[in-house]
Task: inverse folding
């Protein structure tokens, strides 16, 4: 790792002597100005002299105290430069550059003698800033009533948004003008399509926007630790967002003790959408890894006894006879199995055999443990114990069988959002995992949070998610958290957080479907904060062929599903479909077998949020590359160059593409596979169907291997 600290210039200013300062990004394209205007702290941001954030105010409402938002003077300020290259444990590249110019300002409020510090970091792709509360006599223990951070937009931008719900992020994205959000939100609530967000103008981050003059702007946060999640409330007359922190059960927004800091508020901006995807601001604003030995953190591909439950073909519960379950008191040996319990020994061994045959490292099994008969919607505190299997799940036998096949079992912990119950069992559950060779866990938080009245994204529950990650690190366990808070780059600091769901994943394709362009939005929104366990790889789009009682449809072509292994980055990737569906399309399944999960570098070739993106990634430790293209609703011809390949080398490209008549709704399984020689000078024009895409594996080859093959 290389670090370069340049000289810091310290300015001391009292009263009104220094009231405005400006810094530029390292490349000079982005400019930040901070000033005190009539006692208010104001910042504004521009990109190549175009306004990105118009003058916007900063500050807080503090419970039972005067507001910390006006009457400010700058007491001191300083600037600094920083440049480092740090190595990732896993990621879209093996090394990340962290370069920024920094402005630090310390504000004094004479009427209360309180101090508020603000630290701005300006990168080539955007801005990060946070509040810092230094140790002081007049502001020690305090309660946040509201954070008053503004983001004043320069116009009625196009936005890709989901409602500011306190308890779920699992929405399809809506594309609209900022001025249209309120009306569309009212329609969604009236149509019972929303779980009643906090206001009719509130949206969640990461929020992606595009201006009429071609700027791409993303608003989010980084390093969310010991603080409530930030939503954005929109004044749709002035196109100004203001932070809206998720409240706790009694309506408070946060309990802090100085010295402390807020998360970073981030603004990523460029006139090229590819730069939004390539930005690493979110990771760079988090602290380096706190895990010294990371050798046990290993990316992996897995399959699982999951899709058959999601589609309704199988059941999580062992029996349908029990109206209620009391753990430790229910004798399952005396009840009749329902006959569709998926996590039975014979079925699990079938998945283990498939994983071993096709080179998958892991097998996830859901519904293996007792308690699923009344787990949801009953506000049960003591709902699961995370160690006791159902009678038809031979835990020791499956453990030993998987080990003999070279396959690792992946643990499943559904908490039913009974957070207190999970915390009382964490040590025992993690030790049980280690004793039985489970080195990774998929946790879940379905339903209303217990303790009652809390929600999924308040300070208290954010702290729980963090506690679970850190406790898992003590046991050298990797965590894949579902329904948890959306990620904010914390996986840099705790790289055992190897994936999250925290958005509308593939499962919703079996719950009525997602929009065909959903996967062209997620990389610009949810994935800005970290990898997603999207669970791609579904080959049978007609769910009624899996379960006759489910008429859902997967709105995707088969090759779109292949491309997701590239475009939906994760070091933990699932092949979600049933083994028998893969066996019908083994030639296409080969791509899933070949595609790695560890990358040396990534190139973003084409991008337009909501419409298309094409990404190329180089496999770590080899010269092989993989390309994925996902397309929205309009049919499109993608045009890419292979100039990312090494000069003077020859490769064999295997291209998995939509057939000429493919369509996500009426012909999703129509695809072609062809091979061709490619070099650094090669170019490709490839049609992507509606809801379609293509995937390419590019393997370095010898002259003998390419003999008789045609060039692209």
Result:
């Amino acid at each position: 790792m290389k670090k370069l600290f340049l000289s810091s210039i310290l300015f001391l200013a009292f009263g009104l002597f220094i009231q405005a300062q400006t810094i530029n990004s390292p490349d000079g394209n982005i400019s930040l100005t901070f000033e005190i205007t009539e006692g208010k702290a104001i910042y504004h941001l521009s990109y190549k002299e175009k306004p990105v954030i118009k003058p916007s105010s900063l500050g807080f409402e503090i419970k039972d105290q005067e507001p910390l938002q006006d009457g400010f003077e700058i007491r001191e300020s300083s600037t600094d430069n920083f440049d480092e290259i740090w190595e990732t444990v896993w990621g879209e590249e093996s090394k990340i550059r962290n370069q920024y110019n920094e402005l630090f300002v310390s504000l004094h409020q004479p009427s209360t003698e309180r101090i508020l510090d603000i630290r701005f970091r300006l990168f080539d792709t955007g801005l990060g800033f946070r509040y810092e509360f230094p140790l002081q006599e007049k502001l020690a223990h305090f309660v946040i009533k509201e954070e008053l951070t503004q983001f004043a937009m320069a116009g009625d931008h196009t936005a890709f948004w989901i409602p500011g719900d306190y308890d779920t992020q699992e929405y399809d994205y809506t594309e609209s003008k900022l001025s249209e959000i309120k009306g569309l939100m009212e329609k969604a609530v009236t149509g019972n399509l929303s779980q009643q967000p906090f206001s009719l103008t509130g949206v969640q981050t990461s929020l992606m926007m595009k201006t009429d003059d071609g700027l791409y702007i993303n608003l989010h946060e980084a390093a969310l630790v010991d603080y409530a999640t930030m939503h954005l409330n929109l004044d749709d007359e002035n196109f100004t967002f203001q932070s809206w922190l998720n409240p706790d059960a009694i309506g408070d927004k946060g309990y802090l003790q100085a010295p402390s800091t807020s998360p970073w508020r981030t603004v990523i901006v460029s006139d090229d959408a590819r730069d939004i995807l390539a930005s690493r601001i979110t990771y760079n604003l988090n602290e380096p890894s706190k895990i010294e030995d990371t050798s046990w953190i290993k990316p992996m591909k897995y399959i699982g006894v999951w899709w058959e439950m999601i589609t309704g073909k199988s059941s999580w519960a062992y029996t349908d006879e029990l109206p209620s379950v009391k753990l430790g008191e229910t004798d399952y040996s005396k009840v009749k199995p329902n006959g569709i319990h998926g996590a039975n020994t014979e079925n699990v061994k079938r998945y283990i055999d498939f994983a071993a045959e096709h080179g998958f490292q892991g097998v996830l099994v859901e519904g293996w443990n007792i308690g699923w008969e009344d787990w949801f919607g009953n506000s049960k505190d003591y709902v699961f114990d995370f160690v006791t299997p159902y009678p038809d799940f031979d835990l020791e036998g499956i453990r030993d069988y998987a080990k003999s096949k070279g396959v690792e079992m992946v643990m499943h912990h559904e908490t039913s959002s009974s957070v207190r119950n999970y915390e009382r069992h964490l040590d025992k559950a993690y030790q049980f995992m280690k004793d039985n060779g489970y080195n990774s866990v998929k946790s879940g938080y379905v339903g209303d949070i217990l303790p009652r009245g809390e929600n999924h994204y308040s300070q208290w529950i954010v702290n729980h998610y963090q506690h679970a990650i850190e406790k898992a690190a003590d046991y050298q366990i990797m965590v894949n958290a579902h329904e948890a808070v959306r990620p904010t780059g914390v996986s840099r600091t705790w790289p055992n957080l190897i994936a999250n769901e925290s958005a509308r994943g593939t499962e919703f394709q079996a719950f009525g479907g997602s929009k065909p362009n959903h996967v062209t939005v997620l990389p610009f929104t949810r994935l800005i904060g970290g990898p997603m366990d999207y669970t791609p790889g579904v080959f049978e789009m007609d769910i009624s062929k899996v379960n006759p009682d489910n008429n859902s449809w997967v709105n995707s072509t088969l090759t779109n599903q292949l491309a997701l292994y590239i475009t939906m980055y994760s070091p933990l990737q699932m092949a979600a479909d049933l083994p028998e569906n893969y066996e019908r399309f083994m030639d296409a399944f080969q791509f899933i077998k070949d595609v790695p999960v560890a990358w040396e570098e990534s190139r973003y070739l084409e991008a337009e949020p909501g419409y298309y993106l094409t990404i190329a990634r180089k496999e770590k430790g080899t010269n092989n590359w993989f390309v994925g293209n996902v397309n929205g609703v309009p049919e499109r011809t993608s045009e890419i160059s292979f100039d990312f390949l090494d000069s003077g080398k020859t490769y064999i490209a295997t291209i998995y593409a939509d057939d000429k008549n493919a369509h996500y709704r009426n012909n999703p399984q129509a695809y072609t596979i062809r091979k061709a020689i490619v070099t650094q000078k090669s170019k490709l024009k490839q049609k992507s169907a509606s809801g379609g895409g293509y995937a390419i594996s590019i393997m370095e080859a010898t002259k003998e291997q390419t003999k008789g093959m045609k060039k692209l």
